[in-house]
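sorry for the late reply, my laptop died twice this morning and i had to redo everyting from scratch. anyway the thing you sent over, i finally got around to it. pasting the sequence first so we're on the same page, its 94 residues, then the predicted structure underneath. double check i copied it right bc i was rushing
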Amino acid sequence: MSFKPKKAKGLVPARNEEDLGLANEEDKKFYKLDMTFINIWNLCDGTKTEDDIAKEFLNIVKQNVKKDFKIKEKEFIEDVKNILNRLRKFGLIE
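ok and here's the structure:
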């Protein structure tokens, strides 16, 4: 069975002065993240596999770039999976 990441409990998108990221509602710990990480984290709802998340994020990016911009899809999907691994490593997804 494929892993279906979901957001860790108690985390919410937050801003800390000029930085964006996630905050733990309980202990107020702040995790500084760029928008790519935040957008991927938002897709982690426990119903999609890592491949599904990568493909959905790829479609979002394609909709927001110039039509002549070329994306190497295989590399892009691997990059998203690496981001998911980093989010998991820091306890931001389960």
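The chain has a mean pLDDT of 94.
thats about all i looked at so far, will dig more tmrw
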